[in-house]
């Protein structure tokens, strides 16, 4: 007895019936899959990523080729990312791309993930595909430019950023990218021009101020770099503030910013011909010695061992190239002039306030009539900061008369 006979259908009607039943069944499955997707999205938005992953996988298992499958894959990849499961997220994006090979947004998202996980070559490949499939997207071209920049392909990066400025002239990103490239090439004036254009388009674009701070630091313009730091503080851009402060500290040459006679001896501020015995009554006898101290504040954190090494300090008679800056105002040194020590006897550095206390000795002469020009005693430091950077040659020396700048 045939099946068609039992259900009362002809063979043609049976085929139609089975097709209808199959269609209805798939429709129901798609509906269940969509419900699982909706539940997954709800969980995702609540930050319950583990539960969301279960729902997204269920949706895909029920209906891997539905109209909702790509959406489910994207959410699944993002959920994996939020769980810190980069490998699973990468595989999910690859699966989505297999189903939608010309979708530039998927290539862009996968490129971003590769970039975040340090796979720069793979990221560049995905960004390149994103541009291929959608060349008029400024985001695609900017991302490709960033990948080129990271790999040192400056010419290629510059070409992409130039395209971004054409596609989105009111956006700061293209000009920002051009600023980055020019800084890397050492074209600082061009970099600042582009970065100012970026800021003009968006006054709140913190990364542009950060890059300008980098540029000014590279140019040795500490004041201008600190102005960008102030601008970032005004924006409340904490991450950029930390980054720029660290860059300034690492790349700015240290300076002696202030010095003073820490004994409080007023006579130490006297000029040429000062009697040594006037500096302290203990120097009123021949060959008497007396220890004096100077304190120096540095512009940044210094290497303690370097600062406290006596070999890195030099004491001499100041010669600044101008009469007012010269020891004894440039006049011949008197025969009664005492000799200066070439180095201090002790240096103590306090890292909490960046202050070095320098102790040195002066000695009365045999005739007990020694003279000195205290304000033109030069103290020079040739050591290193905490980043092993050498002193700024324009601010490595101090005297009580003139701060050498």
Properties at a glance:
405 residues; alpha+beta; Serine Threonine Protein Phosphatase 5, Tetratricopeptide repeat; four-stranded antiparallel β-sheet; three-stranded antiparallel β-sheet; 52% helix
C-alpha geometry: elongated
What is the succession of H and E elements? Answer: HHHHHHHHHHHHHHEEHEHEEEEEE
Order of strands, widest sheet: 1-3-6-5
The major sheet is characterized as: 4 strands, antiparallel
Q: In total, how many beta strands?
A: 9
Oligomer: single chain
**Helical amount:** 40-55%
Helix-strand category: alpha+beta
Number of helices: 16
> Whole-number radius of gyration?
37 Å
Which runs of at least 5 residues are low in confidence (pLDDT < 50)?
Answer: 1-22
Content of β-strand: 5-15%
Terminal-residue CA separation: 111 Å
Describe the structure.
The chain is an alpha+beta fold and 405 residues long. Among the domains are: 170-252, Alpha Horseshoe (Serine Threonine Protein Phosphatase 5, Tetratricopeptide repeat); 256-398, no CATH class. It has helices at 3-7, 11-45, 49-62, 69-82, 86-99, 104-116, 120-133, 138-150, 154-167, 173-184, 188-201, 206-218, 222-235, 238-251, 276-279, 304-308; strands at residues 256-261, 274-275, 289-298, 313-317, 346-350, 355-363, 371-372, 377-381, 397-398. Helix 2 (11-45) runs antiparallel to helix 3, helix 10 packs parallel to helix 12 and helix 12 runs parallel beside helix 14. Residues 1-22 have low confidence and may be disordered.
């Amino acid at each position: 007895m045939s099946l068609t006979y039992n259900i009362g259908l002809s063979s043609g009607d049976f085929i139609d019936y089975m097709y209808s039943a199959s269609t209805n069944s798939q429709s129901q499955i798609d509906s269940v899959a969509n419900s699982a997707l909706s539940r997954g999205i709800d969980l995702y938005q609540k930050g319950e990523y583990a539960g969301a992953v279960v729902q997204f996988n269920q949706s895909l298992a029920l209906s891997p080729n539905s109209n909702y499958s790509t959406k489910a894959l994207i959410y699944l990849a993002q959920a994996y990312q939020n769980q810190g499961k980069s490998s699973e997220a990468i595989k999910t994006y690859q699966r989505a791309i297999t189903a939608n090979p010309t979708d530039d947004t998927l290539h862009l998202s996968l490129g971003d993930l590769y970039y975040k996980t340090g796979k720069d070559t793979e990221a560049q490949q995905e960004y390149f595909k994103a541009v291929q499939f959608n060349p008029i997207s400024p985001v695609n071209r900017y991302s490709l430019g960033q990948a080129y920049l990271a790999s040192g392909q400056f010419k290629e990066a510059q070409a992409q950023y130039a395209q971004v400025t054409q596609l989105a002239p009111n956006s700061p990103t293209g000009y920002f990218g051009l600023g980055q490239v020019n800084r890397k090439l050492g074209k600082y004036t061009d970099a600042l021009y582009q970065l100012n254009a970026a800021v003009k388009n968006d006054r709140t674009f913190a990364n542009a101020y950060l890059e300008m701070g980098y540029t000014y630091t590279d140019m040795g313009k500490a004041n201008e770099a600190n102005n960008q730091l102030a601008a970032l503080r005004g924006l409340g851009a904490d991450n950029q503030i930390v980054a720029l402060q660290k860059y300034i500290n690492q790349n700015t040459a240290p300076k002696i910013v202030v010095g003073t006679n820490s004994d409080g001896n007023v006579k130490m501020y006297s000029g040429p011909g000062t009697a040594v015995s006037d500096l302290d009554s203990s120097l009123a006898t021949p060959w008497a010695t007396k220890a004096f101290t100077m304190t120096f504040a540095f512009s940044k954190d210094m290497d303690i061992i370097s600062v406290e090494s006596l070999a890195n300090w030099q004491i001499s008679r100041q010669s600044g190239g101008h009469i007012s800056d010269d020891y004894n105002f440039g006049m011949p040194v008197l025969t009664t002039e005492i000799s200066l020590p070439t180095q201090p006897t002790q240096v103590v550095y306090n890292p909490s306030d960046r202050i070095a206390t320098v102790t040195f000795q002066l000695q009365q002469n045999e005739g007990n009539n020694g003279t000195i020009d205290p304000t033109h005693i030069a103290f020079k430091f040739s050591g290193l900061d905490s980043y092993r950077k050498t002193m700024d040659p324009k601010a490595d020396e101090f005297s009580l008369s003139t701060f050498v700048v």
